[in-house]
Automatic annotation (TrEMBL):
It comes from the Eukaryota. Keywords: Membrane, Transmembrane, Transmembrane helix. The lineage of its organism: Eukaryota, Fungi, Dikarya, Basidiomycota, Agaricomycotina. The chain crosses the membrane at residues 24-44. Residues 2-51 form the Cation-transporting P-type ATPase C-terminal domain. Signal peptide: none annotated. This is Cation-transporting P-type ATPase C-terminal domain-containing protein.
């Protein structure tokens, strides 16, 4: 997953590659919403894992895969 992000960043911001792929840098104001959603999903998953470890016989632990 990190390799995919690195390839995307190199394609977006790499010198010379912007001309080849006809891309432009993404303005900073457009990074906020995806970053917020990604952080929210990460936090929800970590809380789910904490609940599964804390209450191993609960319903959430039974539906966890």
């Amino acid at each position: 997953m990190a390799a995919t992000a690195i390839v995307a960043i190199v394609n977006l911001y790499g010198p010379g590659l912007q001309d080849v792929f006809d891309t432009a840098p993404i303005p900073g104001m457009f990074w906020g919403i995806p970053f917020t959603f990604a952080l929210g999903i990460l936090m929800m998953d970590e809380i789910r894992k904490l609940l599964v470890r804390t209450y191993p016989k609960s319903l959430i632990a039974k539906i966890a895969w």
